[in-house]
Amino acid sequence: MTLIDLLFSQHFLANAPDFFYDFFPVIVLFGILGILLIIGVPIAFSIGIAALFTVFIDFPIDKSTVLVSQKLANGLDNFGLLALPFFIVAGNLMNRGGLAARLINFAMLFGGRLNGSLAHVNVMANMLFGSLSGSAAASAAAVGGIMKPLQKEHKYPMDFSTAVNVASCPSGLLIPPSNILILYALVSSTSVQYLFIAGYFPGILMGLGIMIGILLLGKRYHIPHEKIVFTGNVSKVILDAIPSLSLVVIIMGGILAGIFTATEASAIAVVYALILGFAYRELKISDLMPVLVESCVTTSIVLLMVATSSAMSWAMANADIPAFISDFILQTSQNPIVVILLMNVILLIVGTFMDMTPAVLIFTPIFLPIATQLGFDPIHFGIILVFNLCIGICTPPVGTALFVGCSVSDMKLGQVVPKLVPLFVIMVITLVIVTLIPAISLWLPGLLGYQF
């Protein structure tokens, strides 16, 4: 007996309007998912249970459980997913390997020449370290932890400094290599290498937007109007930073030259980060086990969400939910600009209460067909999607970067969030620019042979 049959047998739906039957799968899927998240069920299990009940609409419960189990396994049967655990291990090795301090010194050579220099250095260091580690939270913790005593020494307001750290740490998620872009590539069947290349300018633009915000808001929030000239050995700073920065050159150069795939590049990143950590004498043999355990836990969480989200994607397709949502959105307007801005609003809201991984896995199958139908390139849309979710992790109630940033600086949410609002507005304006000017994302891939 299916769920529809069960409800009919109880006469719950006997007098329901015809529209209700089309809308019923959406109610079941997102209703159950929302309820489970509100009561605190882990998101991976919430997604899996919601998928099971959605399949139960059309199949008996015994067949539903078999189908969902098969989709869970099929969701992980993808060679490209091997890149995720390797990049996670590489990021954790970098966190322990002393890269953050060297990249901050490198950023000081450039950011120190600007008024409010330590705030600008914070942004630049987040862009550099975030792109290498692939984690906004790790970047906020590592960079924020090192910048905090420097900012206190120079009497920077810690509430605004924390807001700058939180707002700038996701910029590295758009600058390759990026785990979240790999996930989008797998779900959307787009090219990882072109998606990586497309992320450079939007990621840099996000960071530049925050730096413009610092210049505009510095006087209002009492940022010291000073330049901090780096007094150390410039040559040594550059030589210390070059091996770290070379990781991006090795990975992207190897992928673009066809020497290795993105998955193979992730394994090379692990070896390189390991060698670099020992060479800097920041990484010890005793650190390896904690790094591997932490990486295993993170990988398990991510892959479980990938598996359950794959089951949910199949359940949505089986129930024609993407087509229903597509029709619903397109009935609102046929103007491509209006529709893409509407999707931006939805994704911004989703990003405030859902982690990036499940959001990409759930909403890509829903919104990508609509975007391509309206003439948007899949690579461009992927950057738009990830940009939206990058903003989401900076905002309450589930902003992981926000919580980490406040924890590192010992500031309360109530002190930081008001200072974050103007930066949030700047990020949204930057998002709109990236959305409406596809060349920002597509010019560089096109230069390297991408056909769109």
Question: Can you describe this structure?
Answer:
This protein is 77% helix and 0% strand. Helix 15 (285-318) crosses helix 18 and helix 17 packs parallel to helix 19. The chain has helices spanning 3-9, 18-38, 43-55, 61-76, 83-96, 99-111, 117-133, 136-153, 158-168, 179-188, 192-198, 200-217, 234-256, 262-279, 285-318, 321-332, 336-353, 356-373, 378-392, 400-409, 413-436, 439-447. It is globular.
Task: Provide a concise account of the structure shown.
The protein has 452 residues and is an all-alpha fold. The chain has helices at residues 3-9, 18-38, 43-55, 61-76, 83-96, 99-111, 117-133, 136-153, 158-168, 179-188, 192-198, 200-217, 234-256, 262-279, 285-318, 321-332, 336-353, 356-373, 378-392, 400-409, 413-436, 439-447. The longest helix is centred in the last third of the chain and has 34 residues, at 285-318.
| Helix content class | over 70%
Number of helices: 22
- Please state roughly what percent of the residues sit in beta strands, choosing from under 5%, 5-15%, 15-25%, 25-35%, 35-45% or over 45%: under 5%
- Can you count the beta strands? 0
Q: How would the global form be characterised?
A: globular
CA radius of gyration:
23 Å
Task: Provide the low-confidence segments as ranges.
Answer: none
